[in-house]
Amino acid sequence: MVRERATFVADIWEQSWFFFVAPEEYDGKIVKKRWKENSPEILKEVIDLLGQIDDFTSKKIEDRVKSYLEEKELGFGAVMNVFRLCLVGSGMGPHLFDIAEILGKQETINRIEKGIQMIP
Questions:
Q1: Which terminus of the chain is more solvent-facing, meaning fewer CB atoms within 10 Å of its CB: N or C?
Q2: What are the start-end ranges of the H helices in 24-104?
Q3: Mean pLDDT across the stretch 59-84?
């Protein structure tokens, strides 16, 4: 998933560490720009819908989250940026829903819950 972004072997860790270790801090620029007053509430709803997905694949996650966006009439950026921030600690990385699939349902939910608690 990070092959295209990695020029040197050392780049592989830089581009994929979040698959192995949950973020302990979050990119301040992204937090300031993307984290809104309603972000925790939105993310709690995302946790609920993720918990309802039995076949936790990238496609199923993406379809369900996009349906949620339509239902709530939310912009893509209102959810995706803070979702990514919770999973990887920054605004970078491969396709968000692929990351969630690889992390698995429980780890994805755990990281979102941690983000809600840690991000001011």
A1: C
A2: 28-34, 39-51, 58-72, 76-88, 96-103
A3: 94
Contact at 8 Å (CB) between 43 and 82? yes
Alpha carbons 33 and 107: distance in angstroms, whole number: 25
Tell me how far apart the alpha carbons of residues 83 and 87 are, in angstroms, rounded to a whole number. 6
Degrees, nearest 5: CA angle 65-38-64: 5
- Residues 22-38 pLDDT 10s: 999 999 999 999 999 99
Task: Name 76's Cβ contacts closer than 8 Å, sequence gap at least 6.
Answer: 69
Report the C-alpha gap between 119 and 104 in whole angstroms.
22
- Residue the block writes with tokens 């829903």: 97
- Is the whole-model pTM more than 0.70? yes
For the chain, the helix, strand and coil percentages under 3-state DSSP, each to the nearest 5 = 70, 0, 30
Domains, the chain: 9-118 (1.10.10.350)
Residues 6 or more apart in contact with residue 79 via CB below 8 angstroms:
42, 46, 65, 68, 69
